[in-house]
Design brief:
- With 328 residues, the chain is an alpha+beta fold.
- The longest helix has 15 residues.
- The chain has one domain: (Glycosyl)asparaginase (Glutamine Phosphoribosylpyrophosphate, subunit 1, domain 1), CATH 3.60.20.
- The protein is built from eight helices and 13 strands.
- Helix 1 runs antiparallel to helix 2, helix 2 packs antiparallel against helix 3 and helix 7 crosses helix 8.
- The strands form two sheets. An eight-stranded mixed β-sheet has the order 4-3-2-6-5-1-11-12. It has a five-stranded mixed β-sheet with strand order 7-8-9-10-13.
Length: 328
């Protein structure tokens, strides 16, 4: 697998929108998983299963503190995972939220899709279902993640997840270092069928029971086998209140390119951003990334601010490509 050694200009890989073939895209931390997804699809695996197999590399990686094992915990020091999957041909999906003690949240979401008449299981119900399905129970809080949590506890300030009543002034102090990292991966086979997954440990130090956008179909993930798909990482609350991934796919249905659709949705989100989340220039002061692929093989996306990449596999090799930013 080739890792990008330099930042190239944003391009349209996978044939530039010519015809369907094996390809996959995802967040930058999905780069290594793209080879897995492509290889499994070549062996006959459904795209949705191949996507799940790809993200499990990151779910198993204790050094990635935003997904699976080693994910940063909630404010009580407990790791809670969210994930969703969606299958293009059947238009079925499955998801889990606030899942504890089970590393492969994306695989549990796949079982929800395949083996139940439900879409979303949460909390203790999701955990019991996973155990019934044979998933091992394990402690997901690594020493490194625990140290980060303990540091956060020692530096608590009024700028945490709990908002003061509007009539009460908020105190000063530097805000804690939150993470919103996630992994998303979408894949398409030679038949043009799509599948995807988004998996996360959610916003670090969140209020216990908080569920983000990753397990909510249309917010952190959405596919339409006739059009394409979109996945997202970053501030989940922004996706939840804007149905971001669904909106991107609908704009692609109307003829927008993946980049055009992602830019338009991010502009909508920025316009509606509440004042407390804006910086001194009036811009949203958080990161949000949208990764999109169209049925004809055109891929792209956009990010809210600064720098970020989309991981792309065009059927030959994987690489990172810079995404255009709304704000820099």
């Amino acid at each position: 697998m080739a890792r990008a050694t330099s930042r190239s200009a944003f391009a349209q890989p996978a044939g530039g929108g010519s015809k369907p073939g094996y390809f996959a895209i995802g967040s930058a931390n999905a780069l290594h998983g793209l080879d897995v997804a492509i290889g499994n699809m070549r062996d006959g695996m459904r795209p949705v299963e191949a996507a799940v197999a790809g993200v499990q590399l990151t779910e198993d990686n204790p050094d990635d503190h935003s997904v699976g094992l080693g994910g940063l915990p909630n404010e009580d020091g407990i790791v809670e995972l969210d994930a969703s999957v969606m299958d293009g041909p059947s238009h079925k999906c499955g998801a889990v939220g606030a899942l504890r003690d089970i590393c492969h949240a994306s695989a549990v979401a796949l079982r929800v899709m395949d083996l139940t008449d439900h879409v979303l299981l949460v909390g203790e119900g999701a955990r019991r279902f996973a155990v019934e399905q044979g998933f091992p129970v394990e402690n997901l809080l690594t020493d490194a993640a625990r140290n980060e949590w303990q540091k956060w506890k020692a530096e608590l300030s009024p700028n945490d997840n709990r908002l003061a009543p509007p009539t009460e002034p908020r105190g000063g102090g530097a805000p804690p270092e939150f993470t919103w990292g996630t992994i998303t991966l979408m894949a398409m086979n030679e038949a043009g069928d799509l599948g995807g997954t988004t998996s996360t440990s959610g916003r670090s130090y969140k209020i216990p029971g908080r569920v983000g956008d990753s397990p909510v179909i249309g917010a952190g993930l959405y596919l339409d086998n006739e059009v394409g798909g979109c996945g997202s990482t970053g501030r989940g609350e922004a996706n939840l209140i804007n149905c971001s991934c669904f909106a991107v796919v609908e704009l692609m249905r109307q003829g927008r390119t993946p980049e055009e659709a992602a830019r338009e949705v991010l502009a909508r989100i920025a316009k509606k951003c509440e004042p407390r989340l804006r910086n001194a220039r009036g811009e949203p002061d958080y990161q949000l990334k949208l990764y999109a692929m169209r049925k004809d093989g055109l891929v792209g996306g956009a990010i809210m601010r600064d720098k970020g990449d989309v991981a792309v596999h065009d059927g030959t090799h994987s690489r990172l490509i810079p995404l255009p930013a709304i704000y820099t």
